[in-house]
Amino acid sequence: MEILRVYPVAPLAVPHAVSKEIIFKGYRIPEGTTVLVNLYSVLRDPSTFKDPDVFRPERYLDADGHLTKPEEYIPFSIGRRVCLGESVARMELFLFIASLVQKFEFLPVDGDLLPERKGIIGITYFPVPFLIRAVRR
């Protein structure tokens, strides 16, 4: 969950068209306007996610260790336009990462120098190029 929050694959939701004129937070949006939802900004909102730039997988566990999911956690969008492949993507991501971590230890190439954590935002969100060493366990 935290990987998808900090590094969403698709930082912008699918474009939508406004079906009738609306006023949203004081702004008039005319009928037919194309709207893009910035999922990246929702997932990095400090009013919802304390320390949004810090990678903390435990943020989704309550005091009893049960998984919690804030309403604002929407890496696959929300509502009728939610990504149809969400369940497959979650399963594939889990299997892919689990199999890599079981078989390899990932280390920086140059001492303790870790790759830059910021990525490049476009239609998709991807990391800046970096090198790592994958050492067989």
Automatic annotation (TrEMBL):
Residues that bind heme: 83
Cofactor(s) required, per the database record: heme
Keyword entries, A-Z: Heme, Iron, Metal-binding, Monooxygenase, Oxidoreductase
Pfam families membership: p450
InterPro entries in the cross-refs: Cyt_P450, Cyt_P450_CS, Cyt_P450_E_grp-I, Cyt_P450_sf, Cytochrome_P450_fam2
Coiled coil feature spans: none
A single MF term (Gene Ontology): monooxygenase activity
SUPFAM superfamilies: Cytochrome P450 (SSF48264)
Family: Belongs to the cytochrome P450 family.
Protein name in the entry: Uncharacterized protein
